Amino acid sequence: MVQVSIDTLIDMAISGEAVVSFPTDTVPALATRPDRAELIFQTKQRSPDKPLILMAATPEALWPYVQGTLEELSVWQKTAQKYWPGGLTLVLPASEQVPPAMNPADPSTIGVRVPDCAIAQSILARTGPMATTSANLSGQPPLLTMAEINHQFPKVLTLFSSDFDPIIPQSTLPSTVAKWESNGQWTILRHGNLLIS
């Protein structure tokens, strides 16, 4: 069990030497620097055909990681303005800035999200965009408390509960995932805690 202060957690996340966990507006996240994404796959025993999500404090921090036409970017930004921060992950064409380890099976796309959670945003504002996924062994239900995460992943860094409000409203559902298709439409890949219209 490795509980640390928020400053230590941020420093270790930036160093790329550790997998860290923090609350979000949906289920708690496991996170690493994007270029160290393989650490999450190892920790979760996750299949490489299940990509990670790039999470950031602001939409502006995520746009360099995607590529599309000006018209497409306009649609994506309008969708982001409507639903972010919040429980919606947008799967978009990936730019060259996305490390292949984020999505080993299909590096041409990347899921991006801005969480509606103050502690997550304050961490991500200092670390920059992070590779994230739910905190659980692959195929098992998401872990919902720091105690569960500490027990399941003794080497993952979590926050002292005194470093954040423990009464964070969290959903037991992960984010809704919408993929941009070449025909200019969204396809819902996963129904989560957010209904989109």
Short description:
With 197 residues, the chain is an alpha/beta fold. Helix content is 24%, strand content 21%.
Report on this structure:
With 197 residues, this protein is of the alpha/beta class. Helix content is 24%, strand content 21%. It is built from 5 helices and 10 strands; from the N terminus they run βαββαβαββαβαβββ. The strands form 2 sheets. It has an 8-stranded mixed beta sheet, with helices on both faces. The protein has a two-stranded parallel sheet with strand order 1-8. α1 (6-15) crosses α4. It is globular. The model has no long low-confidence stretch (mean pLDDT 91).
User: Which value, in Å, is the CA radius of gyration?
Assistant: 16 Å
Q: Name the strands of the widest sheet in spatial order.
A: 2-3-7-4-6-5-9-10
Q: Which series of helices and strands comes N to C?
A: EHEEHEHEEHEHEEE
Q: Could you say which overall geometry the principal axes of the C-alpha atoms support? A: globular
Strand content: 15-25%
Helical fraction: 10-25%
Euclidean distance between termini CA atoms: 42 Å
Number of helices: 5
Mean pLDDT: 91
Tally of DSSP β-strands: 10
Uncertain parts: none
